[in-house]
Model the fold of this input.
Amino acid sequence: MESRNPVFSRRGFSRDNGYAGFNATPQAGGPAVGTQANPYAQQGGNPYAQNPYAQQGLQGAPPQAPATTGAMTMDDVVARTATTLGTVVLTAVLSWVLLPVDEANLGKSYGIAIGAALVAMVLALVQSFKRRPSPALILSYAAFEGVFLGVISAAVSTYIANGVVAQAVLGTMAVFGGVLVAYKAGWIRVNRRFYGFVMAAALGFVLLMAVNLLFAVFGGGDGLGFRSGGLGIVFGIIGIILGACFLALDFKQVEDGIAYGAPREEAWLAAFGLTLTLVWIYLEFLRLLSILNSD
Done:
């Protein structure tokens, strides 16, 4: 089930080959904690070590959350995500200012942006194959991704429409807030079927975009037209919907990681996944709005 492509999958907080959120339902003090269903039961020792009722074998005692030290909390996830996204925003602003996209410097700025995008992709792939999160890798990815986003955003703002970037940011924030509310309200149920559908749809989407890019590179023009005109609008909307689905997967994994007592360092993986998803959504919004505002 699990894909290690950082664009497609969220590695979750499992140390086996499955997706932690779909193996069992984590319950504080419940039977899933401390059993094989909890991938961290063997890493953090006995989660009931400080529950005197559990040690005595008494039934009906009030449940306790796993008493693990250094376990991931929501505050950890928020802090790491803010740091990672802050790095993206900071480097994007700096590249917007320091890498002008006027006619004299456009080629040079574009070259730097493409190089930064390739470095960011390599760093993301390296992190996705590592068993443990590396804050240095994640923040480096965020910095190079920010350089790419800054130049691309400046070019779109300069040559297509001045307000497109602000609209894309607001759209990304609206999708994030909407999916979060829908997830917390239970309107979105993230289960194995949902996960499989999103992975299949994302794979098909990226393959189509790759084919379109190849046709554009070797055949010239807009390739198969998936990124321009009416088809470009349709695929832009599909890309945003896929990004929203990935956000739901991210929220599920964060929730399960906290419930399972994942180590605090795993908050960096949560930040990495959320940043990837938000960058995806922003770029799809930017592309969609560019098509709608282009002559």
The chain is about 65% helix and 0% strand. The radius of gyration is 21 Å.
